């Protein structure tokens, strides 16, 4: 059985909340968890994140039943759902001048048969907590992450880099998109944490671990409170999922 809790907050600085999320009902045939952090002037970010989330969810729900249940087929389904969401957001941005250039990060977690199938684009993050260890399952598609990977700067320098929020990849900005798609074990007592960068930029990894381990039901609110106490410079969204 799976239990999930989620919360989103505008933060202390922004005028609108451009984050959007979706979590499955406990008895849904397939468990789907989606988080998007939109960007773009006017209402662009808000529209992009909601559109991407709903499009990916609808695609997964419509096609899951007829998808073979092997690993490769489900990974392909997750990839296709993100490509479909990309097409919907991109076409919308071209219809309306005020929405030109809008885009969003997108995290998709599809849980089936003690596995989580992850689709990822942007710099929102997914972590897995297993026993006494927290592990980041996604790689930020950011300029700063590329510098770290190339060895140009250290992880510590990346934390406060002026171009920290510059994305190398987002959904909806181009006609084609290449998300990262992976599959990981999701065993009994494992916990998945999904967060927008408004959370992960302001809350240390060890605090994420400690608060989620302490009480998963209260974790989203507590983590949002910490992010706001540390400045709340961005919208903050948290999804916590436990395999009971």
């Amino acid at each position: 059985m799976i239990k999930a809790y989620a919360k989103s907050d505008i933060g202390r600085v922004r005028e609108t909340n451009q984050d959007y999320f979706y979590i499955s009902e406990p008895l849904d045939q397939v468990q789907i968890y989606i988080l998007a952090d939109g960007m773009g002037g006017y209402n662009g970010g808000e529209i992009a994140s909601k559109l991407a989330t709903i499009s990916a969810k609808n695609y997964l729900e419509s096609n899951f039943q007829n998808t073979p249940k092997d690993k490769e087929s489900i990974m392909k389904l997750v990839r296709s759902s993100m490509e479909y969401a990309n097409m919907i957001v991109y076409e919308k941005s071209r219809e309306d001048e005020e929405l030109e250039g809008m885009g969003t990060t997108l995290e998709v977690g599809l849980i089936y048969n003690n596995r989580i199938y992850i689709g990822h684009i942007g710099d929102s993050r997914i972590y897995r907590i297993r026993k006494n260890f927290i592990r980041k399952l996604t790689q930020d598609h950011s300029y700063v992450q590329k510098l770290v990977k190339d060895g140009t700067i250290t992880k510590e320098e990346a934390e406060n880099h002026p171009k920290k929020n510059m994305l190398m990849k987002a959904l909806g900005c181009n006609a084609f998109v290449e998300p990262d798609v992976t599959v990981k074990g999701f065993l009994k007592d494992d916990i998945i944490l999904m967060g927008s960068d408004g959370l992960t930029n302001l809350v240390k990894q060890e605090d994420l671990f400690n608060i989620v381990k302490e009480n998963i039901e209260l974790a989203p609110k507590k983590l949002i409170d910490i992010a706001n106490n540390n400045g709340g410079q961005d919208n903050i969204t948290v999804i916590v999922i436990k395999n009971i």
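Residues 71-95 form the longest helix (25 residues). The chain has one domain: 2-243.
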